[in-house]
Design goal:
The protein is of the alpha+beta class. It contains 22 helices and eleven strands. The strands form three sheets. Strands 1, 2, 3, 4 and 6 form a five-stranded antiparallel β-sheet that branches. Strands 5-10-9-7 form a four-stranded mixed β-sheet, covered by helices on one side. Strand 2 and strand 3 (about 135-140) form a beta hairpin. It is globular. The model has no long low-confidence stretch (mean pLDDT about 80).
């Protein structure tokens, strides 16, 4: 009941933007059409806007947490129609700033010192303001320029309240929406909650920035600002201040004399290095977070910002994904199908020939186009959508990677509309795999594990002797004959039968006792009948041998 007023507010906004058609098939929401004339109208005419544009405007009006939910939903192109996902990808959580005096108070509370002793100057007018935090310019005691990111006051409670509301709405959609099994609203809410939880810890964001900077220590292709750890806490993050232009500011990039074609190639290469070489990638790589350093026109580099959402893959998934990309580049559809099964993403009962045919059906139309016109990201999304019909199981990390691939390809084509993603990615991926799984690296990994093996080696003979002794005495049995397996199956069936009849007999005997207690005179015959039925159930379930 606590969330009912907010639910009504959400419903009124959705009706105002004529979004009831998105849930028209859900019987619960149809009566809401009757109250549409009584809700406030939007400030603009939405009659001729697409459903995606109307949803984007509605989420913006509902507030920053719903904007975050829309941003997450835009990454789920395996669940959301393309037109809606494209619109939601444009959501920007720009919100009015909170007073600089409050930011100063939060910094002093977190760092336990006056701002004047921490920074020689601190600008209370923020450089940028978002739903979770805002950024202020400052100068250190040594004259270095920095930016200070400060969490919004009370944002924890606000997020907790709005996440409860989102969860309530998700439960309603899960119960009543006819396509709930495809949309999986509760899973989407869980992703929003996890993302917000990560973004609320600025110390975690600082650690992510520090690791990414170490991975690209030279700073030649990608520059990551340094973290000032003595001025950082869970609610305050101090970073080196960097200067550049957004990677979608084509006019400024051209004015600086930068070769955009070479820059686009460098951006694609950096993505594959982050994913397959370092297994740690920037998962929110939209143009606002990826800048271009215009001070080096002859050898331009990218600048990474905002490290709240980072991704990594389990080593096994990383290997299988790389092999899938290679097979895709080489149009080996049968190998793609087999790799999906070998990776455990699909059940082993899937027919490889059917899956191969499905993959071929998706890929072949793309390969009739010039390679420069093929969208690798779009192709991967369609492959995931097709594979879901065969019970594809994807981890959230792979969905995050899919979103990043879409972002990076968008940046590459923005800088160079004619870029051949395939020609750039294929050799880079082959080189990374050659280095990652080379004999030298294998020997290095073996050397790393040798101390553990030597430490455990004295225990191996005793463990082998104990295992052999258990097998010899019958404590541990190995199934080598199919008849043994059938015998075990029959034993399990008899156990289930005995358990079921035992529970039924127990229930009937308890019922008989209750009947006798409540009516010892008139209910005696009923109690006796129920008791006899309980005894029969016991006899029926008793093991025959």
């Amino acid at each position: 009941m606590k969330v009912v007023p907010r639910v009504m507010r959400v419903a009124s906004v959705l009706l105002a933007y004529r979004l009831d058609e998105l849930v028209d098939a859900a019987h619960l929401f149809r009566p809401l059409k009757l109250v549409r004339p009584f809700v406030a109208r939007p400030s603009i005419d939405v009659t001729n806007l697409s459903r995606g544009a109307r949803l984007r405007l509605a989420l913006t009006e509902l507030g920053p947490i719903f904007v975050k939910a829309g941003q997450v939903l835009s990454t789920r192109r395996d669940l959301v129609p393309v037109d809606i996902a494209d619109e939601l990808a444009q959501l920007q959580d720009q919100v009015p700033p909170f007073p600089g005096a409050q930011a100063r108070a939060i910094i002093e509370q977190e760092l336990r010192a006056p701002v004047t002793s921490l920074y020689t100057s601190f600008d209370e007018t923020p450089l940028a303001s978002a739903s979770i935090a805002q950024v202020h310019a400052a100068t250190l005691q040594d004259g270095s320029a920095v930016v200070v990111k400060v969490l919004r006051p009370g944002i924890d409670k606000q997020i907790e309240r709005d996440v409860k509301l989102l969860r309530s709405l998700g439960e309603l959609a899960q119960r009543w929406h006819p396509n709930a099994d495809k949309i999986r609203p509760l899973d989407v809410v869980a992703e929003v909650e996890k993302m917000l939880e990560n973004e609320l810890d600025l110390q975690r964001e600082g650690a992510s920035a520090s690791l990414l900077r170490r991975n690209f220590e030279s700073g030649e292709d990608l520059y990551v600002p340094a973290v000032h750890w003595d001025l950082t806490s869970a609610r305050v993050l101090t970073l080196e201040r960097v200067y550049g232009v957004s990677c979608d500011d084509i006019a400024s990039i051209d004015a600086a004399g930068i070769d955009r074609k070479a820059l686009a190639v460098k951006g694609v290469r950096l993505f594959y290095e982050q994913v397959f070489r370092d297994n740690f990638f920037h998962a929110d790589a939209h143009p606002g977070n990826i800048w271009v350093d215009t001070s080096r026109p002859n050898d331009a580099r990218f600048i990474a910002l905002d490290f709240g959402i980072m991704g990594s893959l389990p080593e096994q998934d990383q290997y299988w994904l790389a092999q899938n990309f290679i097979a895709l580049f080489e149009r080996d559809y049968a190998r793609i199908a087999q790799l999906h099964v070998d990776a455990g993403w699909m059940p082993s009962t899937v027919r490889i020939d059917e899956l191969t045919a499905a993959v071929r059906t998706v890929c072949e139309p793309y390969f009739t186009r010039p390679l420069s016109q093929i969208s690798l990201a779009e192709l991967v999304v369609k492959l995931f959508q097709t594979a879901r019909r065969y019970e594809l199981t994807l981890q959230p990390q792979l969905i995050l990677l899919q979103k990043t691939l879409l972002n990076i390809e968008g940046v590459g084509r923005m800088l160079d509309p004619e870029i051949d993603i395939w020609a750039v990615a294929h050799p880079v991926l082959r080189r990374i795999l050659r280095e990652r799984y080379s004999p030298r690296r294998t020997l290095r990994e073996l050397r790393k594990h040798l101390p553990e093996w030597f430490h455990a080696a004295p225990q191996f003979p005793e463990l082998v002797r104990n295992a052999l002794q258990q097998i010899a005495t019958g404590e541990r049995r190995t199934i080598s004959d199919p008849r043994d397996l059938e015998q075990q199956r029959e034993e399990a069936q008899r156990t289930r039968r005995a358990l079921a009849f035992g529970l039924l007999g127990s229930s009937l005997l308890v019922g008989s006792a209750v009947l006798w207690t409540l009516s010892p005179t008139h209910g005696a015959w009923h109690a006796a009948a129920v008791g006899v039925a309980g005894l029969i159930a016991f006899v029926a379930g008793w093991p025959r041998r």
